[in-house]
Amino acid sequence: MKKYKFLIGLFISIFSFIGFSQDRPNFVFILTDDQSYGYLGCTGNEIVHTPNIDKMATEGVLFTNAHVTSAICTPSRVSILLSQYERKHNVNFNSGTSVAPEAWEKSYPVIMRDKGYYTGWVGKNHAPVGHGGYASGLMEESFDYWYAGHGHLGFYPKENHEIFKDAEADTQIEIVQEGVNDFLDSNSRRLEGALHFLENRPKDQPFILSVNFNLPHGASTSTMEMRATDDSIYRTLYRDIEIPLPDNYLAKEAIENPKLPADLLKVEERQDIYDYVDRPSTLKERYIRQLEAMTGIDRLVGDLRTKLETMGIDENTIIIFTSDHGLFMGENGIGGKALCYEKTTHVPLLILDPRLPRKLKGKQKDALVQSIDIAPTILSLAGIEKATTFQGIDISPLLNDKKSEIREYIFTENLWSTQFGNPRCEAIQNKKYKYIRYYANTTFPASKKIKTAEELGLPEAKMLYTVHDSDIAIYRDYVTAPLNGEQPVYEELYDLENDPTEQVNLIKQSNYSEILATLKLAWSKAIKQARGEGKPKVVRYTVESQFESNNKLQLE
Predict the structure, then answer these.
(1) Mind listing the pLDDT tens digit for each residue in 160-182?
(2) Which parts of the sequence belong to the Sulfatase N-terminal domain (predicted)?
(3) By the number of CB atoms within 10 A of the CB, which of 18, 251, 265, 268 ranks highest?
(4) pTM of the predicted model as reported, rounded to 2 decimal places
């Protein structure tokens, strides 16, 4: 009997140690897709209705100088999960790799689960993990609750992903809302498609829920149909007002001097999903859809906060809101992302920690922070030591005013140089200046691949989006070449303080030579730090590897 009492006591002690109590805060991490900084009322948008997120800004902390590390979905999301620059983790659409199980063990959700947190993932996953990437099942197995689809969801996710078939709603945001409710409250309607590690979330166990949207991303907004069954938000909102064109907008026919040299940013090879920027009418229609999506997301945030309050856990739940990158909407005639300009790298970052003293709430911080800082910050707030593999910085001292700055420079990069015309580039910036360097764009044109596919009757998607083993070598050369002395073919220098939209390139002005030299030195240090030490912890994820393992070919 004494033996059993000892074991029971030991069991209780262990579970207390790993955090099965509400002494530690809960977390809800909300990640949008393709949302530039200025898509909220609290970030200066005078058209969009986002009252719930704006309220978060008045009760939490808004970081006004937050940036992603890579302005493209997959590498940015992997960077958030692993707290690593892409140059370190080596996972992108063109890399031919997925995150190795060894590396995934050091992701913040896995670490938190190991330390006693109940974990959930709802919505979109665009991070290939394990042998076989999206088909490995490792991502699903890593969470106590899973209600998500790999790759793009579309505005009507039931048409693309079996897991959502049981949802009552048809539209993406509302389906995600059902998943959020199912995770938080065992009394809510149980979704048959969701994967549960446990039948119910233990009430005395802290949780972290990741809510991931595929909106206002173009792949989802392009599929909006204003169906009769859609909420009125997605049918009528913003359609009775005059929609302005973005500052510095240029229609395709009006472009006389391209923002970047034609042999560097090959606009004619751009993915056709961004052709809406070419004409004011199509641009405005897409912008309306994006604003509608943001208002839908805002309603979810409001419902989420009400749910937390009803359950009596709002005072111990930290909410973090950000985006994986921004998007060009025809500014200077550019469409898409995957560049190092503010329009693509600058994103909103809101942290609502109800435990903060009133005097620290409602503040705006202009400290330079990055998406790789999210994981170490969450772990710090949870009282968990960060992984030695993390490259980000804990920004919680900025929340409580113990620090006003955490870094002098931020480094951003684009390694997604493909047949779609975008160049490799890197940028280093402080609060006042940004230096960008570009490398020769020698990629084979998408237009020629499309023509060949048409002539042979081949699916265009397979011609454009498949990645082969040989592509791994090309990508790795992209990673290492600048470190081995590759010189830029074009450079830019911007005064962000006086020219925040980066219109005037100062690179050839001699009176900025000292500033330029300082930034170049900072770049040389930053790129080495971003690469880090050791080989990338990845596994093959190519056409060949998928066929070898008899997995279904995944093109997203």
Answers:
(1) 999 999 999 999 999 999 999 99
(2) 25-384
(3) 265
(4) 0.94
